[in-house]
UniProtKB/TrEMBL annotation, chain A:
<feature type="transmembrane region" description="Helical">
    <location>
        <begin position="28"/>
        <end position="48"/>
    </location>
</feature>
<keyword id="KW-0874">Quinone</keyword>
<keyword id="KW-1003">Cell membrane</keyword>
<comment type="subunit">
    <text>NDH-1 is composed of 14 different subunits. Subunits NuoA, H, J, K, L, M, N constitute the membrane sector of the complex.</text>
</comment>
<comment type="function">
    <text>NDH-1 shuttles electrons from NADH, via FMN and iron-sulfur (Fe-S) centers, to quinones in the respiratory chain. The immediate electron acceptor for the enzyme in this species is believed to be a menaquinone. Couples the redox reaction to proton translocation (for every two electrons transferred, four hydrogen ions are translocated across the cytoplasmic membrane), and thus conserves the redox energy in a proton gradient.</text>
</comment>
<keyword id="KW-0472">Membrane</keyword>
<keyword id="KW-0813">Transport</keyword>
From TrEMBL, chain B:
<feature type="transmembrane region" description="Helical">
    <location>
        <begin position="118"/>
        <end position="135"/>
    </location>
</feature>
<keyword id="KW-1133">Transmembrane helix</keyword>
<dbReference type="InterPro" id="IPR003945">
    <property type="entry name" value="NU5C-like"/>
</dbReference>
<dbReference type="Pfam" id="PF00361">
    <property type="entry name" value="Proton_antipo_M"/>
</dbReference>
<feature type="transmembrane region" description="Helical">
    <location>
        <begin position="246"/>
        <end position="266"/>
    </location>
</feature>
<feature type="transmembrane region" description="Helical">
    <location>
        <begin position="278"/>
        <end position="299"/>
    </location>
</feature>
<dbReference type="Pfam" id="PF00662">
    <property type="entry name" value="Proton_antipo_N"/>
</dbReference>
Automatic annotation (TrEMBL), chain C:
<feature type="transmembrane region" description="Helical">
    <location>
        <begin position="396"/>
        <end position="419"/>
    </location>
</feature>
<keyword id="KW-0812">Transmembrane</keyword>
<feature type="transmembrane region" description="Helical">
    <location>
        <begin position="31"/>
        <end position="51"/>
    </location>
</feature>
<dbReference type="GO" id="GO:0016491">
    <property type="term" value="F:oxidoreductase activity"/>
</dbReference>
<feature type="transmembrane region" description="Helical">
    <location>
        <begin position="298"/>
        <end position="320"/>
    </location>
</feature>
<dbReference type="Pfam" id="PF00361">
    <property type="entry name" value="Proton_antipo_M"/>
</dbReference>
<feature type="domain" description="NADH:quinone oxidoreductase/Mrp antiporter transmembrane">
    <location>
        <begin position="139"/>
        <end position="444"/>
    </location>
</feature>
Length: 99, 639, 524
């Protein structure tokens, strides 16, 4: 199969993720959408790796996975503590960081 | 000998310092100290005078260099004095009349709790005035010039609790400052033209430069003289200056300070001689003022203001004479000296009258006082005869010479100036006779009934006219002597002329009509003026309330509307200007600054709204930014 | 190595400031006495500088030089010429009087417990300002100068914003505090904007010249080894001049001064106008003319016009003021116009006059403003309309006030006359028209001074003023020496002119200008 199709898929997944981040209010869903965007990037990296015939993209994909895992840990912890203090997981309720 | 010159000034200056800085301890003796130091100054003057008489006419001038005052690269101002015949004349007049007036003030100011300070100011005035006439350069003269202005300011406003006195003092200083501006511009012009402003070098070098520059300098000097000597158009302060105590009016605003302008013109004779256009302006100013003052003097009911008008007019004569050049300088100074005697005497007489009349100044509340104050009456009467130019008395000699010199100017100008001077003499006779008649003759209008009938309140205190104490009458008697004999003494054998000639130079004028005819005309107009006054004020009773009078009379009462003009144009105009400037400074200059600050604040307020705290909106800006970068990169590639 | 006298004159007040601030809260009087002592000791050091300084010696004397920031060639370089010595002496002289006059200005108020008035801080800040001003007069390194030029804003900001009284008894505390903080912020922002532009110019100068040292750059410019493009020089000149014109202040950058002087206490107002503002005019003479002679000549016509506008405009606005302190502030704007006029007339008389003017204006404004402050403290109002007839109840106060007013209107015999006349002559000999317009300033000066005196001191006594006390001993100790100095320098200014003259000659040769010759000589 033409590897370019994987790129199209990655772009689609990224757009879905981005839209989700922008329009959803539930922190968990926003978080999952961020994961979706990260994985779309991973897919694109692997596809580029295949396209260019070297391993750079695959290596970076591994890095991304590690960072994403760390992020999941910190992010979920924040969301859980947020939920505990506010009894809500809506991101709009956490809008105090403004001038 | 020359070391004495500084002492002339130092004595009264010391008096001023001690009296003004010393505390209450000096209250009881201060006036004596002040008088003594003034007398000391006069004594030094006499010593120098006798020494000067012993020398040849050409070698009489003395110089004293005290110290270098402002030494700056290319600019040299020294504290140095010059005593020649002209200065000597002034020194004797100032310290002599000054001492007499100190003595007079001992009695006049006896009941004033601030007498010590009054004498301090008088001493300050003497020091400044002596500095003015002794300076050997224009800048030091300027110090004395403003110094007398300060003393005059302090003394006019001596009774500061009266708002009118404080206003009059301020007005005098301000009008004088306009004149001073002229003097400082003149000095600057001299500096740029000659590189110096010492009398000697400047007056010798007048031939080296063009007439235009000299005319400019001369006109600026004239402006200064107009301010100090109350000449049109800067004359308006003199009438108000009468708010000061009467000895002050006698010394400063009649005998000495106001004649400083004449001194300045005569001293700068070399400049004026080389600038005929400026000289013409000087004579015009003098002629206009002599009529102006005389007309104002006719209408005033306040005895001091009537005398002030007369002073203005007499100085007009002097300025006129000074403007005539070498044919007039000597006579200007001669009239100045005789005027110093009789006008000081007249003012002291007026003060003596006021002293006995509860400080009343309105001549319509006087009348018939000759019985009550015989000494004042006689001395005032002699001064009166002198000023109107009664043959044989001082004023006759000096004024007659000026009128002659005016005719001798030649051409149409000579005729006009001479006629104006003659007309002035007639008006002088008129208004002085009026003062004399209203004060010492006629009904006793100061009686309670008469006063109440003329509109005084029920609480009117009837005065008890009485002769003044000896300390006041003796100076008046001495001045009366001067008024009677000085003119004759000066004129016999042209003594005064020969005395001053080495300094001012003299040319004999040739009037188009004979000297005898001029004298005859002078006497004729004198008789005319006296007769007119007698018809109006002697033959019939003086109305206790001033009649409305003709348009001219009403205008003259208001100083020929000059004050109204000043008020409308300068005072009101100035107020509007400053008020609008204050508004503009606030709204425009400061407004621009505050506006900038406000718009920066407003802009940041707008920008702040972007920070709404919602994660989504931050995410949008991130995506938008990323999209923009991508788009920009692609665009760059494409191009 | 000799004793670093110049550093000591600045270090002493700086250390004194720290020590004063550290005095425990309860011991206010100890703090005041300490501050006074330190300022007097600084005056002693300044006298030592005066004695050690030889007017006919080299241009900069008592120099000190140490490397500071090597990477940028910034050096700790001090040195004074005659002009610097004169102003240093003026500063050291005025500070003790300012401290003495402000003795009770920072006492805690009895009536309102809400306002905390830290006495120690007040006096410490004054000493801090003194140290920085002295250093700016001494610095011969452009960057070093810039640092102190800017740093002195901080203590000044606190002095203006933190201390002051109500404008009149009917004003409430809140409005007064709001106006005070407005004035302080305005002062700070104005001067910071000026300083920022100057910083850009300082950096620009470094990139062009490769050095911050005034002496090095000036020498390089003089012998032609440092060539600046005309436009570069002009831009750099404008950057420096703008900052100094804000500080001086020159019309139309003046509006911070009336606010700052009006809202602060009288001693602080004197500190602003008599001491801090002098840094601006001093720097014009030292930096603008020396570093950018060609650009200075290029800008002269415009600056002269602005200076003349300042003279007339300041005087006219002074006439229209209703607040005593604001009146003095506008009068100062007029006087700064004269100083700038003298500097840029580019004649010996003008520049000597301008330097003398800085000193004399410092003394005369101090005399007038401090007496005005004593008056205001007696009535609790700055409004002229609240006064009248003071001469009857407090003749000494009125008398000293009159002398201060007369000094302000440049009466001959008092010091300001000499400087004003020198400036006028110096200007007139090159620019007659401008000289004549400036001469109108002397009439206007008489107007605002005497109107102020008449309205406050003469006339019938206002009932509120019937029982005010005359000057006290402490207040006399402030006023009498200042007046004595005004008289002395008016009669015998020779020591001062001899100090200043050689420095002016150097400046004149910097800009390569010669005095115009008198017509009579020129025509021969």
């Amino acid at each position: 199969m033409n590897p370019v199709n994987y790129l199209y898929l990655a772009a689609l997944l990224f757009s879905i993720g981005a839209t989700g981040v922008l329009i959803r209010r539930n922190a968990i869903v926003v978080f999952m959408c961020v994961e979706l965007m990260l994985n779309a990037c991973n897919l694109a990296f692997v596809a580029f790796s295949r396209l260019h015939g070297n391993l750079d993209g695959q290596i970076i994909a591994f890095f991304t996975m590690v960072v994403a895992a760390a992020e999941v840990v910190v992010g979920l912890a924040i969301i859980v503590s947020l939920f505990r203090s506010r009894h809500s997981a809506s991101v709009d309720d956490a809008s105090l960081m403004k001038l | 000998m020359e070391n004495l010159i500084a002492l002339l000034i130092a004595a009264p200056l010391l008096g001023a310092a001690v009296l003004l800085c010393g505390g209450r301890a000096l209250d009881r003796t201060g006036h004596l100290l002040g008088t003594l130091l003034s007398l000391a100054s006069f004594a030094f003057g006499l010593v120098l005078f006798t020494d000067m008489l012993g020398k040849d006419a050409e070698e009489r001038a003395l110089h004293q260099h005290l110290f270098s005052w402002i030494p700056v690269e290319g600019f040299q101002a020294d504290v140095a004095f010059q005593l020649d015949q002209l200065s000597m004349t002034f020194v004797l007049l100032i310290s002599g009349v000054g001492t007499l007036i100190h003595i007079y003030s001992i009695g006049y100011m006896e009941h004033d709790e601030r007498r010590r300070r009054f004498f301090g100011y008088l001493n300050l005035f003497l020091a400044a005035m002596l500095l003015l006439v002794l300076a050997d350069n224009y800048l030091l003269l300027y110090v004395g010039w403003e110094g007398v202005g300060l003393a005059s300011y302090l003394l006019i406003g001596f009774w500061q609790h009266k708002p009118s006195a404080a206003t009059a003092a301020k007005k005098a200083f301000l009008v004088n400052r306009v004149g001073d501006m002229g003097l400082s511009i003149a000095i600057m012009l001299m500096f740029t033209t000659f590189g110096t402003f010492a009398f000697g070098p400047v007056l010798e070098a007048t031939g080296d430069t063009g007439e235009g520059k000299l005319t400019a300098i001369a006109l600026m000097l004239l402006l200064a003289a107009c301010g100090k000597s109350a000449q049109v158009p800067l004359q308006s302060w003199l009438g108000d200056a009468m708010e000061g105590p009467t000895p002050v009016s006698a010394l400063i605003h009649a005998a000495t300070m106001v004649t400083a302008g004449v001194y300045l013109i005569v001293r700068s004779g070399a400049i004026f001689n080389a600038a005929p256009d400026a000289q013409l302006v000087v004579t015009i100013v003098g002629a206009v003022t002599l009529l102006f003052g005389a007309i104002v003097g006719c209408a005033k009911d306040d005895i001091k203001k009537a005398l002030a008008g007369s002073t203005m007019s007499q100085i007009g004569y002097m300025v006129l004479a000074a403007g005539l050049g070498p044919i007039g300088y000597v006579f200007a100074i001669m009239h100045l000296v005789t005027h110093g005697f009789f006008k000081a005497g007249l003012f002291l007489g007026a003060g003596s009258v006021m002293h006995g009349m509860n400080d009343e100044v309105d001549m319509r509340r006087y009348g018939g006082l000759r019985k009550y104050m015989p000494v004042t009456f006689v001395t005032f009467g002699l001064g009166y005869l002198a000023i109107i130019g009664f043959p044989g008395l001082s004023g006759f000699f000096s004024k007659d010479k000026i009128i002659e010199a005016a005719f001798a100017k030649g051409g149409t100008e000579g005729w006009i100036l001479g006629s104006v001077a003659l007309l002035g003499a007639a008006i002088t006779a008129f208004y002085m006779t009026r003062v004399m008649l209203m004060t010492f003759f006629g009904e006793e209008r100061w009686r309670k009934q008469a006063a109440i009938a003329s509109g005084a309140g029920e609480d009117y205190q009837e005065p008890h006219p009485h002769e003044s104490p000896k300390s006041m009458t003796i100076p008046m008697i001495i001045l009366a002597f001067g008024s009677v004999f000085a003119g004759g003494f000066f004129s016999i054998g042209d003594r005064f002329l020969h005395w001053l000639e080495p300094v001012t130079a003299h040319e004999h004028g040739h009037p188009p009509i004979s000297a005898g005819a001029v004298t005859g005309a002078t006497v004729a107009v004198l008789v005319l003026g006296v007769a007119a006054a007698w018809l109006m004020y002697g033959r019939r009773p003086v109305p206790a309330v001033a009649p409305r009078g003709s348009l001219l009379t009403r205008a003259a009462r208001r100083d020929l509307l000059q004050d109204d003009f000043n008020h409308v144009v300068l005072v009101r105009g100035g107020e509007h200007l400053t008020r609008s400037l204050v508004y503009l400074d606030h709204s425009l200059v400061d407004g621009a600054v505050n506006g900038t600050a406000a718009s920066v604040g407003g802009l940041s307020g707008r920008l702040r709204r972007l920070q709404n705290g919602y994660v989504r909106s931050y995410a949008v800006s991130m995506f938008g930014g990323a999209a923009l970068i991508v788009a920009a990169t692609l665009l760059m590639r494409a191009v | 190595m000799s004793f670093p006298l110049l550093t000591a004159t600045a270090a002493l007040p700086a250390l004194g400031a720290v020590a004063t601030a550290a005095v425990p809260a309860g011991k206010r009087n100890a703090a005041k006495s300490l501050a006074l002592l330190v300022s007097l000791a600084t005056l002693g050091l300044a006298v030592a500088v005066l004695v050690r300084f030889d007017p006919d010696g080299g241009r900069y004397q008592l120099t000190e030089s140490h490397s500071w920031i090597k990477d940028f060639g910034v050096r700790y370089e001090l040195g004074v010429d005659g002009i610097g010595v004169a102003l240093l002496a003026l500063t050291a002289l005025l500070i003790p009087f300012i401290i003495l006059a402000g003795w009770h200005d920072a006492d805690p108020l009895e009536t309102s417990s809400s306002r905390w008035r830290p006495t120690q801080g007040f006096f410490a800040l004054i000493l801090a300002v003194e140290a920085m001003v002295i250093l700016s007069f001494e610095a011969t390194d452009v960057f070093l100068f810039y640092i102190f030029f800017e740093a002195m804003l901080i203590p000044m900001y606190f002095l203006i914003g933190g201390f002051g009284d109500r404008a009149h008894p009917h004003q409430d505390e809140k409005t007064a505090a709001a106006q005070r903080s407005y004035a302080a912020v305005k002062f700070l922002l104005y001067n910071l904007v000026g300083g920022l532009i100057m910083l850009a110019a300082v950096i620009g100068l470094y990139t062009v010249a490769g050095s911050f040292s005034l002496t090095e750059i000036a020498e390089a410019r003089a012998d032609g080894s440092l060539d600046m493009a005309t436009s570069t020089e002009r831009w750099l000149f404008l950057g420096f001049f703008f900052a100094f014109a804000v500080k001086a202040p020159l019309w139309p950058l003046h509006t911070w001064l009336p606010n700052a002087m009006g809202e602060s206490t009288a001693p602080v107002a004197v500190l602003i106008t008599a001491v801090v503002d002098k840094v601006g005019t001093f720097a014009m003479l030292r930096f603008c003319l020396q570093l950018f002679p060609e650009a200075s000549k290029w800008a002269t016509p415009a600056i002269l016009v602005l200076a003349v506008i300042s003279i007339v405009y300041g005087a006219l606005l002074a006439v229209g003021q209703r607040d005593i302190k604001r009146l003095v502030a506008y009068a100062s704007i007029s006087h700064f116009g004269f100083i700038i006029l003298g500097i840029f007339a580019m004649t010996s008389q003008g520049q000597s006059g301008a330097t003398l003017y800085m000193v004399n204006h410092g003394i005369s404004t101090a005399a007038l403003m401090l007496v005005a402050g004593f008056l205001i403290s007696r009535r609790g109002s700055r409004l002229i309309a609240d006064y009248g007839g003071v001469q009857k109840t407090a003749p000494l106060l009125a008398g000293t006030f009159l002398i201060g007013s007369l000094a302000t209107l440049s009466l001959p015999g008092l010091a300001p006359f000499i400087s004003e006349f020198l400036v006028l002559v110096g200007t007139f000999s090159r620019y007659p028209a401008i000289g004549i317009i400036a001469t109108f300033g002397i009439v206007l000066a008489a107007l605002y001074s005497l109107v102020l005196y008449q309205r406050t001191m003469t006339g019938p006594v206002k009932p509120e003023l019937a029982k005010i006390p005359d000057l006290r001993v402490r207040e006399l100790a402030v006023v009498v020496p200042l007046i004595a100095l005004l008289v002395f320098l008016g009669v015998y200014p020779k020591p001062l002119t001899e100090l200043v003259d050689p420095a002016v000659k150097h400046t004149m040769s910097d800009v390569q200008k010669k005095d115009p010759r008198p017509d009579v000589e020129a025509s021969k």
